[in-house]
Amino acid sequence: MKAASMTARRQNLVSCHNCHLLCDAPVPVGKQQVACCPRCGTTLHSRKPNSLMRTWALVFAAVILYLPANLLPITITRAIGITQSDTIISGVIYFLHSGMVPIALVIFIASVFVPLMKLLILIYLLISVQRRSRRRLVDRTRLYRLTELVGRWSMVDVYVVTILVALVKLGAVARVDAGPATPYFAGVVIITMFAAESFDPRLIWDVMEDDE
Amino acid sequence: MSELMACHECDLLTRLPELPPGGRAHCPRCGCLLQRDRPNSIEKTLALSFAGLVLFIVAVSFPFLAMKAGGFEQHSNLLTGVWLLLEQKMVLLAMVVLLTCVLFPLAGILGLLYVLLPLHFGRRLPRAEVVFRLVSHLQPWSMMEVFMLGILVSLVKLGHLAEVIPGISLWAFAVLIFVLAAQTAVLDHHQVWERLEALR
Ligand SMILES: [Zn+2]
């Protein structure tokens, strides 16, 4: 037997999502598979259920939230009678102009680039799995691993806003409020994290078994 | 007899080799890390969890940052931002910050202590499996290190407006991040599950 075909599913085994114990595949009862890992109690699935549909739905929701998150103001600053609204991008531009390039880069990468790349990568993975692509299986698995790792760093700006709100309340002199983009922004981060979690990378490799 | 394991990223069945000290086993097909030799994992994780708990208590009970400008002084602690967001009626946002920077990391530390302390003495408390499962699920949602980056960005942002003075809590918080990172690195889930199973 070729190495490619020696998968748990082929051998009628299921690896527990949580503790990775190899279990016998549950016998389908009606349409539903009902079995729990004997060691940790997680429901057993050979593949995450409805992985593609759920990931598509979450990616779609994140794309929609991504627009208000970047277009609406993320902070509203009031100082000596002047009110100033800043979006993520206007913040980046401000830092570029004032010569703080590293900070501009951190904000741009974490808040604009990472979520966008993550969504594009997930869309690419979803389409390539649905088209039963056999190309670059290892690279695609690596891309998936990357989306799992970097997503949480996009939360940086939500925290920056929280800290600014807490610190800048100098009597009546100055005040920072969280802008309407902030909840959308947190939403994008959380939903893309769920999206990466609901994608099952084993789907990338399943095409190898179907070949034989 | 070495153990049979399925790669959780590509489902390939592999026999895990006996790992040399500090060795790692990767999936031969997709390269995913399958297992790593972590000697004394439970004891090390326990020590780091205790250290984490102490630092945590310091981080929430002392002043975090203070800002000084034009005769005014504004103090804050770790939770000031959360309360002010609540005042602004941003309840959801306040919850997100509270959960990811305070409650989830704390739950992770306490959960590990609940599971690992008895395990060290060869015992198992009720529902230890459920607690350990929750701890693994919470792990990606605990974002203290991201919060730290947020603090650095804010400091630069405010640097030209006012003088920002770090408090004891901020230092405790910074050390806590390293302790939690070390804890994640030494924790061997596989070993914990095996010990829990043996104690049933
Ligand atoms: Zn693999």
From TrEMBL, chain A:
Pfam families: PqiA. It is found in: Cell inner membrane. Keywords: Cell inner membrane, Cell membrane, Membrane, Transmembrane, Transmembrane helix. The keyword Nucleotide-binding does not apply. One of its GO terms (cellular component) is plasma membrane. The keyword Transcription does not apply. Its main location: membrane. The chain crosses the membrane at residues 56-80, 100-129, 150-172, 178-196. This is Paraquat-inducible membrane protein A. It comes from Geothermobacter hydrogeniphilus. The lineage of its organism: Bacteria, Pseudomonadati, Thermodesulfobacteriota, Desulfuromonadia, Desulfuromonadales.
